[in-house]
Amino acid sequence: MNAKEYIKYLLSIESYSFSLDEIAKETSVSSNSLKFELHRLSEKGEIVNLRKGFYLIITPRYSSAKKLPIQLYCEKLFNHLNRNYYVSLFSAAKFHGASHQQVQRDYIIIEKPKFNDISKINIDIRFFTASKWSDKNIQQKKSDAGIFKISSPALTIVDLIHYQTKLGGINRMLATIEELAEELAESDLSELLSWYPNKSTLQRFGFLLEELGMDEKFQEIIYSELKARNFFPVLLSPKSKEKPGAVDNKWKVAINVKLESDL
Prior knowledge:
Number of strands: 11
Distance between the termini: 54 Å
Oligomer: single chain
Largest sheet: 4 strands, mixed
Number of domains: 2
């Protein structure tokens, strides 16, 4: 079997990616012949070398985009890398129906150590590392290529708030948070509060739910948890040289940015 035949086989079982080790094991050609064949297929746009030793198969359906949807290969990629991951932030929000923020970039949160962003041709993947890893609030969804992991609505919201300064600021995500809050379930929120370590992010979460006029029951669940943990004033938008000062709301959130949702 040569590389082209193996790729055809992979597509027949709805697998849209492969590693160099995998294809070398399954084909009967020499290492040099295989590399030459893969190079030729790359030049024709039939495959893309995503990162060293890992390739995407670009089917006719995606040939004009020159990339695949992240859900068709992320599980296989991170199994290959032996790393924990989940589709996150604006990418996860889209799967939960909060597609107000149209983004061409894909977002993945992984377990430490840090992972370099991938930026080539039409592929743009940004990676963030979680300060504490938990398998809680990570859901499995099904794609044509099988299952993939994604943050639940509650985890997606706190991740957006936590990484706000790296994502264009709180106002850029306010409409997305509002849409995600409509998908919140009490079980999802309770699970998050059982392990999530960042109190300041939870304070901002509760404050935003109140500002956006979302379900008071969810606000109370978060506030009860914060009271049990003992919490202190924080800025709504973190700034390295700014301190919260006096606050006049129960969340102890100092409003240092004017909230403007474009929903």
